[in-house]
Task: inverse folding
């Protein structure tokens, strides 16, 4: 895909996702019309970057994470298929308990991965409870597998790790989009808000917070680029860790700049804050991933450079 | 030559010639020893051709993408053959000569720098001129008074933080040639021979005990007019041209130097979660700047003009370097603070040096000012 095509597609997806989110329509339907699943198969990197960044930017909700995961697990995806996500904070194959995305609303079957392999379970056989929590609009559900399910089919070696990596990259782009919007909101506020006879964007203390936020976002986007280029699970893990750190750092700086108005529900900042709080726990928090990576480096006494020129 | 192929062949060659290129002293060695080692290795690598890849043929190079020379510098840093901070003067000053010097002058001098025959230094900062470089006051006046016809210029003033001037044969020097208020419009760059009468060099001891920096005094120093780089009053452009290299190839080389330090850390720590967390954080910060820097190298190689966006690289670089050395201090209490053997010396010299990462090459505060104004378009900061 050349730069012009990509730019046009980005705009189209963002407009469509925005319109759907505003009208209360299903974003999934809009993305399906734009050919999301075909794009995911033909140009997975462009598709995931564009769609998840757009979701992050406009705080949209869609079941597209399920498509990414199902595809990584070698299953043909559709709105009928959901994938059981690991418990909050974990990236282990979920087995009997986990989370479902907004896809729970349309899915007839759920792919459940455990230590033995993958099972396709009718959604009716699961105990599914909507989650309100910090982000009621996020569409998450808590799930327990009740009773026995059909025997699991063995998964190819590394298939779950590949699915985790794919999910982490997708979520990383969503966080990158969300933090870009947080920074936009804080930047606009800083330019508009006048105190002591001047725009607060002229105060160095304010400017440096916004600059720090941009540094974090650009760092995150660089790790995502490296994760796609590299393709091994560790670079995707590091990108998800960067996403978690970036979300916290950007939210803190932007909330401080937004001050009083950012502490109210009159201003949209809180929606992005709460969404990223939830996204951080999917497929591992930054702290948990960093600890895991550190343990692995110490266990193997090896420090790979991972990416080359 | 393809970059992956170059990398593979280079490392194979360095493996095969390990004994020849390895430092002849036990680390850390003195600064004198490390400089001599770097120049010796540059000579060997120039002779073998490696040091010439990525440089234009008109200055003795073999052509190819500048990424090739970036890769060579990274290999030297990762293998401990040359300090990246010291080696970086090649990366920043050779391109300056190539872009701004008379072509014959560049063809004569650049091979001397690449082959280790010479070292050059960079005379920018002054006692009254740090972050605000446009206020520099070291004065150059045309002998006879006419800048158009003068054969010689006479320089008076002082520079400070001039790295390695005591080892250098030449200096790329910024001088004031306009009025004191002319700021960036009245600056001229000279390529000065350091053995010219009237130059006095006084090393400064850094907090790690080394003497990398110097003060350089100019007392009626006569420099031929053909040593002007970038024309009279064209010095600001010369100074700004250095930035892309300082923030691209030099960073890639410093990052390459830091990975073996993470290795040293994981070799030394116990199998506990406190260490794992510190190691993981350092590794994440380093991977983040490596990812960013990799994209920057490719943009530069593709012909992009690097500008304010490299301030992001600079902040990430400083963060990564200090996070790593903070992790070392945290995981091995007493080594940096108390140990008197070579391991303690190395850890201490490097740790203390890392404290300057947020200061040199433009402080982190100046970087954030640039990011705020140029990348976030927040307008003036007053």
Result:
């Amino acid at each position: 895909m050349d730069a012009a095509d990509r730019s046009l597609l980005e705009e189209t997806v963002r407009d469509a996702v925005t319109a759907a989110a505003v009208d209360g329509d299903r974003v999934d339907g809009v993305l399906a019309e734009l050919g999301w699943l075909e794009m995911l198969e033909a140009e997975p990197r462009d598709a995931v970057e564009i769609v998840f960044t757009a979701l992050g930017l406009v705080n949209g909700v869609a079941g597209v994470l399920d498509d990414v995961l199902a595809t990584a697990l070698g299953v043909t995806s559709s709105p009928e298929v959901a994938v059981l996500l690991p418990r909050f904070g974990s990236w282990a194959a979920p087995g009997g308990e986990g989370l479902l995305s907004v896809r729970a609303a349309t899915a007839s079957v759920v792919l459940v991965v455990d230590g033995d392999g993958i099972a396709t379970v009718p959604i009716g056989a699961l105990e599914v409870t909507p989650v309100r929590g910090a982000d009621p609009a996020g569409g998450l559900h808590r799930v327990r597998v009740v009773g026995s399910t059909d025997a699991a089919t063995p998964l190819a070696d590394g298939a779950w790790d590949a699915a985790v990596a794919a999910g982490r990259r997708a979520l990383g782009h969503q966080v990158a989009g969300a933090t870009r919007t947080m920074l936009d909101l804080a930047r606009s506020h800083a330019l508009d808000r006048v105190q002591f006879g001047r725009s607060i964007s002229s105060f160095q203390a304010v400017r440096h917070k916004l600059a720090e936020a941009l540094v974090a976002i650009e760092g995150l986007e660089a790790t995502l680029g490296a994760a796609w280029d590299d393709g091994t699970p560790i670079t995707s893990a590091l990108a998800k860790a960067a996403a978690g750190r970036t979300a916290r750092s950007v939210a803190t700086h932007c909330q401080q700049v937004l001050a009083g108005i950012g502490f109210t529900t009159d201003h949209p900042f809180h929606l992005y804050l709460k969404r990223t709080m939830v996204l951080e726990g999917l497929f591992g928090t930054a702290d948990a991933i960093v600890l895991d990576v550190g343990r692995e480096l110490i266990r193997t006494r090896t420090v790979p450079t991972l990416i080359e020129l | 030559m393809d970059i992956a192929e170059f990398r593979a062949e280079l490392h194979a060659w360095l493996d095969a010639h390990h004994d020849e290129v390895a430092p002849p002293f036990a680390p850390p060695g003195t600064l004198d020893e490390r400089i001599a080692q770097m120049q010796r290795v540059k000579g060997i690598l120039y002779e073998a051709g490696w040091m010439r890849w990525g440089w234009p043929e008109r200055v003795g190079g073999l052509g190819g993408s500048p990424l090739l020379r970036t890769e060579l510098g990274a290999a030297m840093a990762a293998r401990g053959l040359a300090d990246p901070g010291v080696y970086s003067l090649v990366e920043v000053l050779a391109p300056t000569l190539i872009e701004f010097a008379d072509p014959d002058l560049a063809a004569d001098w650049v091979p001397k720098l690449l082959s280790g025959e010479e070292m050059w230094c960079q005379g920018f900062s002054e006692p009254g001129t740090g972050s605000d470089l446009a206020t520099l006051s070291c004065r150059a006046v045309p002998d006879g008074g006419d800048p158009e016809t003068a054969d010689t210029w006479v320089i008076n003033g002082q520079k400070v933080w001039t790295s390695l001037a005591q080892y250098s044969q030449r200096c790329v020097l910024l001088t004031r040639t306009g009025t004191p208020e002319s700021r960036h419009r009245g600056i001229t760059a000279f390529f000065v021979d350091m053995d010219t009468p009237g130059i006095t060099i006084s090393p400064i001891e850094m907090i790690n005990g080394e003497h990398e920096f110097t003060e350089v005094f100019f007392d009626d120093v006569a420099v031929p007019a053909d040593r002007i780089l970038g024309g009279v009053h064209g010095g600001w452009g010369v100074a700004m041209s250095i930035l892309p290299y300082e923030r691209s190839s030099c960073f890639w080389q410093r990052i390459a130097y830091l990975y073996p330090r993470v290795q040293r850390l994981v070799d030394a720590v116990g199998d506990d979660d406190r260490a794992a967390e510190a190691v993981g954080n350092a590794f994440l910060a380093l991977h983040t700047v490596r990812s960013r820097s990799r994209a920057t190298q490719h943009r530069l190689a593709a012909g992009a003009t690097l500008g304010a966006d490299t301030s992001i690289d600079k902040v990430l670089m400083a963060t990564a370097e200090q996070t790593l050395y903070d992790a070392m201090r945290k995981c091995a209490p007493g080594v940096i603070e108390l140990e008197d053997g070579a391991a303690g010396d190395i850890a201490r010299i490097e740790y203390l040096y890392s404290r300057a990462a947020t200061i040199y090459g433009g402080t982190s505060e100046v970087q954030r000012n640039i990011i705020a104004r140029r990348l976030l378009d927040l307008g003036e900061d007053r």
Q: What stands out?
A: Chain B touches chain A through 54 residues (CB under 8 Å). Chain B has a mean pLDDT of 96. Chain B has three domains: 3-118, 121-236, 247-375. Strands of chain B lie at 120-123, 139-142, 152-163, 170-176, 187-193, 199-204, 213-224, 228-229.
